[in-house]
Amino acid sequence: MSKTIQIVAPDVCTGCGACFNQCAVDAITMCEDSEGFLGPVIDDTKCIQCGKCERVCPVLHPPTFGAETPDCYAVMAKDEVRWVTSSGGMFVLAADWILEHNGFVCGAEYTEDFRGVRHAVIDHWTKLPRLMRSKYVQSDTNIIYHQIKTILDTTDKPVLFCGCPCQVAALRNCIGEHDRLYLLDLVCHGVPSPKAWQSYIGDIWGVKMEEGVVRNVNFRPKDKGWGHSISISISKPDDSEDVFTEDRSGAWYTAFLKAFSTRVCCSSCTYAKIPRVGDITIGDFWGIEKHKKELDDGKGTSCVLINSEKGRHLFKNVRPRMTLCEQQKLSIAVSGNGQLSVPTWKNTNHKCFFMHLDKYGFNNALRYAKKEIMDIGLVSWWYVVNYGSMITSYALYKYLSDQGFSVGMLRSPDREKYYADEETNALPFARKHYRITNFRRQESLYELNHYFDTFILGSDQLWNHFCEYSHYYMLSFAERTKKKIAYSTSFGHSHTFFAKEVKEEATIYMRELDYVSVREADGIALAREFGVNAVVTCDPVFLLNRADYLKLAEDAERKTKGDFILAYIMEPTNEKKAALTHLSEKLKLRIVTIVDRQMDYYGKIEQMKDFGILADAKIEEWLWHFSNAKFVLTDSFHGTCFAIINEKPFVSVGNIKRGNARFESLLENLGLIDRFVYDAAKIIERADLISGIDYDSVNKILNSERKRGQSWLMNALNTPKEAVLSTSDIIRRENVKLRKRVYELEAKFDKLAARFNEIQVKV
C-alpha cells in the first residue's frame, strides 16, 4: 500500500498524528504500541488509497523552512512570569500577545487526572496556565490540526501553535503556509513514553499516595532555582496534602535524560538541526553563564531563534514585554543545546527498560536498564558460522523474547577469535537480532550473576566433549541462587568421552542445574551418568512456526529462480555426489548446493563445485532455499529439521562423525525413519526415497512435541527458585576443585621432571 503511511517504519514514526487528521474516511486510528507511544493503524476496509496521509507525513516529506543562520537571543520575562514557567518565559510573552489580539493559542496540557498530556486550544488568558511549563511526556495531538485549520478558515484571528518540531512540521504539512498561523518549535531532547509516565505515577502512588488523587504536576519548579526537578502534589481522602519531589538524579529524569524512556525515532530525528521548522524556536539557554554571568540569575533564561519574517514580526511585537533581550552568537546556543545540531543519543538499554516496564513497574524497569539487568542469559553457539547452530540459537532467543522475557546472548570466554573476524563469523546476523553481552574471560564470568536472574543452556551439542569442552557450557560460572535450565541440550553421541577428572567436576555443575531436558532419547541415560534426571524435548527450531522463518527468508539477497533440489552438505563425499546426480536425473531438477562453513569451507566448495554451489550463503538465503526447494538432500541434523518444517520431501544421510543419535531420535519420533540412510549409496538403490511425505500425520506429532517443549520450558521458567547448595554439595564441589588442582600440579611436575632429565642428559 505505497500510497499510505503504512510505508513508514514504526521505528521512525513520530506519532505526530498528521495522517490521522488528514484522513477523510476515518480509516486511520492512533493506537498505542507496546511502549505506550501512539502510532497510526489503517483499516484496509475503509481506506480508499487517496494518498493524503502519505503526503502530509513529516517523516516522508519534511517541510523546507527556516533561516540557515537564524538570529539568536537570550530572553527574560518579568520575575513573576518566570516564576510560573520552566524557562525564561518566551512562550507566555508570545501567547499573551496573541490572546490580546483575540487570537487562539495551542499548546500541551495535562489531562484531568495528570496521567497524560494532550494538545489543546485556548482563547482566554485565564486558561493559559494550563499550557505553561515543560511537560516531559509525549502529547496526544488528536484532531488538533483539523481544529486549527477550521479556526483559520472560519475566522480572521491569529493562531499560535507550540510543540515539538515533528508536530510543528505535521501542522505545516496539513495546513501549508498561512499568514495568521505562528509556529513555535521547541528544542526537543526526545519525548518520553506516556505509558512510562503512568507507571511512574503508579509507583509513586504505591509508595506515597495511598488512595490520594494527583492535584498538580510541576516539572522544573523554580523554588530551588533554574534546573531539572519534579514536584507532584497529592490530595488525600482526609483533605491533607502531600508533595512528592525529585531532582535531576531522580527516577523520571534519569530515564528521560539517559534516553531509556524516549521514543526510538528521537535518536534519528530529522528536525534536530538548523534550519528549524518553526517561525520561532524556543528553549532553555543552557550554559549562557559561561559566556556572560549576568544572563543567568537562576530564574530562567530563554534561548530564542528567529527563523522567518513572520517570526521576526511576532518577536518585534513581544520584545517590549521582555525585561532582558540580548542578541548572542548562534554557536553559543548550539553548544548548550545539543539537539540544535544532532538528535538525542540512542541508548542500547532502551528495549531493556520497556521489556521490564509492564512486568515490574517503572522503578524496577529503570534499575534493570541502568544495570543492564535482564531476565535470561542464554548460552549457545550463536557466534559460529554453522547454520544449524545459528538458527537454533535464534529460535530459542526469539521464542523466549516473544514470551515477554528480556534475553541476553552470552559471549563464550574461550571464543574471542570469533568476535574479532567479521568475515567468517555470525556477528552481522547476531547484532541485528540479539542483545549481546560484553566479552569476559573465564575469571570474570562471575560478573554475569549481577545482570541475569536465570541462565539457560541452549540446544545443539554443547555437551559433546569433542567440541573444545568447557564447564562454561554447564553454567559453571552461575551462582547456585540463580535459576539454571538446560533446554534440549545434546551430548551429540550415544556415549560420553569425558576424562575421569573432568567428569567429576562436570557432575557437580550438572547436578546444580534446576531443570534439564535433552534433545535425544540417548541423552536421558547419559544425563543419569552425572546424577541428573532429564526429559526429552524438541529442538528449539521447532518452538517457532514456519511463518517466523519465512519472515527472515524474505531478506535473502539471492533467490534461485525455477525449481531445484537443495543439497545442504556438511561432509562432501563421492557417494553423496553420485546420489545428487541420480536425484537430479530422476526428478529432472537442477541442483543448488550450500555447504557447511565450518572446517575446510573452501575445500568443500572445491569438492562440490559442479553441483550448483551457492557460496557464502547468509542465513536468510539458507532459509529461503529450504522454503523454496522441491526436494532436499542433507547430511545435517538441522537441515533435516528445516526440510520437515517446510514440508519438503527429503533424504537424510547419516553423519557418524557428528553423531547419528539426534537423527534417529527425531525421525523415529515423527515416523520418518525411512527417510534416513547411513550410506548415501543406498539412495540410488531405493526408488521409494523420492516419493512424497504425508505431512498431515507428521505435523500432528510435531505440533504435540512443540506444545510439550513450550510447556516444559515455560514451567521451568515460571516455577520459583527454591533449591540451594547443601553442605555436602559444597564440600563435594570444593573436593573436586582440589583434585583438579592436584591434577594440574602433577602435570606441571611431570613437565619439570622431564625438562630436568633433558638437562641432565645434555650435561
Query: What is the mean pLDDT?
Result: 90
Low-confidence stretches: none
Number of DSSP-assigned strands: 24
Give the C-alpha Rg: 33 Å
Helix content range:
25-40%
Number of helices: 26
- Spatial separation of the terminal alpha carbons: 88 Å
Structural class computed from helices and strand pairing: alpha/beta
What does the largest sheet look like? Answer: 8 strands, mixed
Number of domains: 6
Strand content: 15-25%
Order of strands side by side in the largest beta sheet?
5-4-6-7-11-12-3-13
The dominant shape is elongated
What this model shows, in words?
- Strands 5-4-6-7-11-12-3-13 form an eight-stranded mixed beta sheet, sandwiched between helices.
- The protein is elongated, with a radius of gyration of 33 Å.
- The protein has six domains: 5-56, 2-Layer Sandwich (Alpha-Beta Plaits), CATH 3.30.70; 71-192 and 260-340, no CATH class; 194-257; 372-542, 3-Layer(aba) Sandwich (Rossmann fold); 556-693, Glycogen Phosphorylase B (Rossmann fold), CATH 3.40.50.2000; 727-763.
- Helix 18 crosses helix 21.
- It has 26 helices and 24 strands.
- It is 36% helix and 17% strand.
- Strand 23, helix 23 and strand 24 (676-677) form a beta-alpha-beta unit.
- The protein has 763 residues and is of the alpha/beta class.
- The N and C termini lie far apart (88 Å).
